[in-house]
DNA sequence: CGGCATCCTTCAAGATACTG
DNA sequence: CAGTATCTTGAAGGATGCCG
């Protein structure tokens, strides 16, 4: 149990990175922000993370008081991991990263699935009150069997696991990619319904309005600085906002590969 | 120039970490938030970072469009690194991390110096409007020769490199640790002045009030969960001592080692 | 001297297999 | 299901060399 490699720097940023700066650590926290999960669920949400590293990160996060291991049962002797209070306080960090990262380029090989929790957290992080305006809606969401409740009111969005007592709209999608395309790739709701992989009910007009409250992420242009003697020009990184669509290179992946 | 190790995950958090998740990357950004710096200044602010890693991080940050290398001169052929617009947009991320990390435990061996920019950014991140109340002040700050201007008004704090046209108060400290003790360790202003390592002028009453607007960082308590029958993990990491203050082990290091 | 590039060592991360 | 054990790869750390 060798001591973890730490920044010897009293700066708060360095101290934070001492706790969550190791590779995968913040993604593990991301998988837990919506509630406790078992080891295998964590592994499902982060399939590219090797298991020994996952186990090690969990031990470190537990030692630092960000994650708590709880044993359920005895009927079903399953262990779950959940964020402590201290761990939940990382949400502003995740939110800031997700907001910034939503304008970062996608990795080239779009082979990876988007985990359900990752997608839902992206909604939390990229909700734009200006786009919401006066919209008010209680929506019940089902993504591949995971149920979430969304509440929009007063320019604010709440999003948690659970059930609304009296939803005004329902949206059921078979997998995360379907919702991803609806929200971030501008896929039309009625198209998804016609392909029969999506179900809607209730106030579909306001539901469609809700889906438009999340500004689509765009690739920002490469640091092409073709050498003008422009010492401090504001221009070069302007993310060419005149391309409101053209997001995911393959919006056709939506319908397929229903999991067993 | 082997390709960087990337998360193949379309989640915004993962995409952000692909840009700034490597070790030291965010600390390099921290050193640049207050303005351009030369390579050697960066190295001074991050003495524990080996130079090859610094050069590599700078190349990666430049390739990702977060940092721009600019050549000054020709009279003085010095190169400086500065944040692009995109890089400056990381400030909310740094702020969230610094705020969270200000309540994380200090590394055991407090041997490290706090870089000037790190300390000043900590002020930005931990300023508490509630503690400021109706305080209003323009203060000129000199930390080891680096000059900053602070403006507090309407429960907001601005802090940048530069000079106030008409400051209402002045504070001059010989090194970062002195200001650190004044702000975060509760050192008294008049004591510092009497030790002759600190100079104040102008409205010292409001200056003292300003210094009290930054809640001191404390070690957060161990994951004490005394309630449920938790058979596993007896919580061996409890840092134990309930010393509510006693922050910096050696508040006597303030006066000494003026750099040539 | 500032600004890196190179070489070598060490240790974390990645992949796979295996066990209670 | 929930991890641990083992092996390989590759990034970080440290020293030194080089070049304008």
TrEMBL record, chains A, B:
Region: Disordered; residue ranges are 220-260
Q: Membrane-spanning residues where?
A: none
Top-rank taxon? Bacteria
Record keyword Transcription regulation present: yes
State the Gene3D superfamilies in the record: SCP2 sterol-binding domain (3.30.1050.10), Winged helix-like DNA-binding domain superfamily/Winged helix DNA-binding domain (1.10.10.10)
* Keywords associated with the record: DNA-binding, Transcription, Transcription regulation
Which residues fall in a compositionally biased region of kind Pro residues?
223-242
Q: Which residues form the HTH hxlR-type domain?
A: 11-109
Q: Which InterPro entries match?
A: HTH_HxlR, SCP2_sterol-bd_dom_sf, WH-like_DNA-bd_sf, WH_DNA-bd_sf
Q: Note the coiled coil stretches, chain numbering.
A: none
Q: Which PANTHER family match?
A: TRANSCRIPTIONAL REGULATOR, MARR FAMILY, TRANSCRIPTIONAL REGULATORY PROTEIN
What's this protein's name?
Winged helix-turn-helix transcriptional regulator
- Native source organism of the sequence: Amycolatopsis rhabdoformis
Q: What is the lineage of its organism?
A: Bacteria, Bacillati, Actinomycetota, Actinomycetes, Pseudonocardiales
């Amino acid at each position: 149990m060798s001591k973890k490699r730490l920044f010897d720097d009293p700066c708060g940023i360095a101290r934070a990175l001492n706790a969550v700066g190791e590779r995968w650590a913040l993604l593990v926290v991301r998988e837990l922000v919506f509630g406790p999960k078992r080891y295998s669920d964590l592994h499902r949400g982060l399939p590219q993370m090797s298991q020994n590293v996952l186990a090690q990160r969990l031990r470190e996060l537990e030692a630092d008081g960000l994650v708590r291991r709880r044993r359920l049962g005895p009927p079903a002797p399953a262990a779950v991991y959940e964020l402590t209070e201290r761990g939940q306080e990382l949400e502003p960090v995740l939110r800031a990263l997700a907001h910034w990262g939503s304008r970062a380029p996608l990795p080239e090989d779009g082979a990876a699935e988007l985990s359900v929790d990752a997608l839902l957290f992206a909604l939390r992080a990229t909700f734009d009150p200006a786009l919401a305006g006066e919209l008010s809606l209680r929506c019940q969401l089902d993504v591949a069997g995971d149920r979430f409740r969304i509440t929009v009111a007063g320019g604010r969005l709440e999003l948690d696991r659970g059930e609304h007592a009296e939803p005004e709209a329902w949206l059921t999608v078979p997998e995360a990619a379907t919702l991803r395309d609806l929200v971030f790739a501008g896929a039309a709701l009625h198209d998804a319904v016609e392909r029969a992989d999506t179900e809607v009910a209730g106030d579909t007009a306001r539901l469609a309005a809700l889906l438009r409250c999340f500004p689509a992420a765009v690739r920002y242009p490469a640091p092409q600085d073709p050498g003008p003697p422009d010492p401090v020009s504001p221009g070069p990184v302007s993310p060419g906002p005149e391309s409101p669509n053209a997001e995911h290179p393959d919006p056709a992946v939506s319908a397929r590969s229903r999991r067993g």
